[in-house]
Design goal:
Blueprint: E1 3-5, E2 7-9, E3 19-22, E4 28-32, E5 35-37, H1 58-71, E6 74-80, E7 88-95, E8 110-114, H2 122-136, E9 140-141, E10 148-151, E11 154-159, E12 162-167, H3 170-182, E13 187-188, E14 198-199, E15 202-206, E16 214-217, H4 219-229, H5 261-274, H6 280-287, H7 295-310, E17 316-318, E18 327-334, E19 353-360, E20 363-371, H8 379-407, E21 416-420, H9 423-430, H10 450-456, E22 460-464, H11 481-492
Parallel strand pairs: 1-7, 18-21, 21-22
Antiparallel strand pairs: 2-5, 3-4, 6-12, 6-13, 7-8, 9-10, 10-11, 11-12, 14-15, 15-16, 16-17, 18-19, 19-20
Helix pairs in contact: 1-8, 4-5, 4-7, 5-6, 8-9
Length: 494
């Protein structure tokens, strides 16, 4: 049965009113307007609720960038033009005519046989359309990341309509693109966007510090953040955070007229999650108060902005290494880091913070700074929970690394090490048979799962590291300036 829904159209008389599509440096490369379906008026259908469409994980994207640099793999970005409308619908829908057709609007409608933007099912139809073509081209989807497709000579990774093709040979990449075109895919690579100079708003450029290295930065996003905060002429600071944030009953509510707190947090999250692990802790603790920000929280965000002013051209540096291309990890925790003597009876202030960092050849690939879901009763317990969280990220990433290495015939180092700075935590995690004590037997089974994996996997080790060498330390707490700069240099290289 066909479904009749209304549509809306954005009609702009001049190019200046179109949506501006920009490169990472802020340069406008095209203007855009679309006819959109009013998906909010779409009636639900029992057999048409498959609306979910995955996108590539940034963990996988950074892993691919790192492997390309480490092994000199060729890569190219392509952009599918008007991706959603390239997928066919299994049944037509009917739309009321957009503005400008008033003479016939009461007696005519539009019959649509292609997917359109705004349709609740459009992302899923596009995903199915593209993946069906890739499978027909002998690509196999990864069981870990459904947007990573592997073939014995090529890797295809996509985020909606932005794709990366990696191979040892340029001719293989060209043949994949031509095969897609023969299958009626409209690929836009005439604007310079197809080169690997930017991807999803991230600028990719060679780094002058080492031949063959890659510098991933987001200068335009940082500029937008600084402008939104009204800090264009502000002086930079050397650290993004100086204190732990709490609700402050003596602080006034944030004036949203000065800047939109949630909007800035959204931009900071995209920056911290993609190229700037050095601000991950500071951003996460500010994001906790998005529902009712106070002036003290707004000042903390402005400090992050001032820190970004001094580091706007910096980001994630991927350097080739000739010593190792191994996946390693660093796990750390700040026990009861939210404790506030002025609010001793607030249960939420008793939680600890987890921080972990996974690296490939000393290049950060995955990082996280987040509060633990349970209240740890000791430093050992908080560290054990952080260790469990880091292994949840490391183990599937090892599988992805192995599959990519096999597909492209790359040397693969199966050994991985997790560095932990708490001896009691290491003892609890590695002793076989398991050693329980009165202080450890209460810990939930959900945090013990990895001990069986350690017992059966000889190439996964947990190793002690002194606290001063712990690279995940900055993800759990604010650090003194000298300590923060030293750790940033270890992690990011600048």
């Amino acid at each position: 049965m066909s479904l009749e829904i209304r549509c809306k159209v954005k009609s702009y008389p001049l190019p200046g009113f179109f949506k501006r599509k920009r490169l990472p440096d802020g340069t406008i490369y095209k203007y855009k307007a679309r006819l959109c379906i009013r998906g909010d008026l779409q009636a639900p259908q029992l057999d048409r609720n498959d609306t979910y469409a995955p996108v590539a994980s940034w963990d996988t994207i950074r892993l691919m960038f790192s492997l390309c640099v480490q092994h000199g793999i060729k890569s190219r970005q392509i952009d599918f033009a008007n991706a959603f409308v390239q997928a066919d619908r299994d049944e037509p829908i009917f739309l009321s005519l957009p503005p400008g057709f008033s003479n016939t609007s009461s007696t005519h409608c539009m019959k649509v046989t292609k997917s359109l933007y705004g349709d609740a099912r459009a992302p899923r139809m596009w995903y199915d359309h593209l993946t069906t073509a890739l499978v027909a081209m002998d690509f196999t989807p990864s069981p870990i990341d459904p947007c990573l497709f592997l073939r014995n000579d090529c890797i295809f990774l996509f985020w909606v309509d932005d794709a990366i093709i990696c191979s040892h040979n340029d001719s293989t990449i060209v043949s994949v693109i031509e095969d897609l075109r023969q299958r009626k895919f409209d690929i836009d690579d005439d604007t310079g966007v197809g080169s690997m100079e930017n991807y999803l708003g991230i600028k990719l450029a060679p780094d002058s510090s080492a031949p063959g290295s890659l510098h991933m930065t987001q200068p335009h996003l940082i500029s937008r953040i600084v402008d939104s905060l009204g800090l264009t002429n502000a002086k930079p600071v050397s650290t993004p955070a100086v204190t732990i944030l709490h609700p402050d009953n003596n602080s006034n509510p944030h004036d949203q007229g000065r800047f939109n707190y949630r909007s800035v947090i959204g931009m900071l999250n995209y920056l911290a999650n993609n190229t700037r692990p050095d601000i991950a802790f500071a951003v996460h603790q500010c994001a906790r108060f998005s529902h009712a920000p106070q002036q003290v929280h707004a000042e903390a965000i402005k400090r992050i902005g001032r820190y970004l002013i001094g580091t706007s051209q910096q980001g994630l540096i991927v350097r080739p290494t000739h010593t190792t291309c191994r996946l390693d990890g660093y796990a750390d925790a700040d026990f009861a880091g939210l404790w506030n003597a002025q609010q001793p009876n607030v249960v939420g202030n008793l939680r600890s913070r987890t921080g972990y960092l996974l690296t490939l050849g000393n290049t950060p690939v995955v990082w996280a700074s987040k509060l633990q879901g349970v209240i740890a009763l000791s430093t050992m317990e908080s560290e054990f929970i952080a260790l469990s969280a880091s292994l949840k990220a490391l183990i599937p990433l090892r599988d992805t690394h192995l599959r990519i290495s096999k597909a492209l015939s790359l040397p693969y180092e199966s050994e991985s090490r997790i560095f932990e700075d708490n001896q009691a935590c290491i003892t609890l995690a590695t002793t076989n048979p398991p050693r329980m004590t009165p202080r450890s037997k209460h810990i939930a089974i959900r945090y013990f799962w990895f001990r069986e994996h350690l017992r059966t996997c000889s190439d996964l080790q947990i190793i002690y590291i002194p606290t001063h060498a712990q690279r995940a330390n900055h993800l759990t707490k604010p650090l003194p300036t000298a300590t923060f700069l030293k750790e940033r240099r270890l992690v990011l290289g600048w």
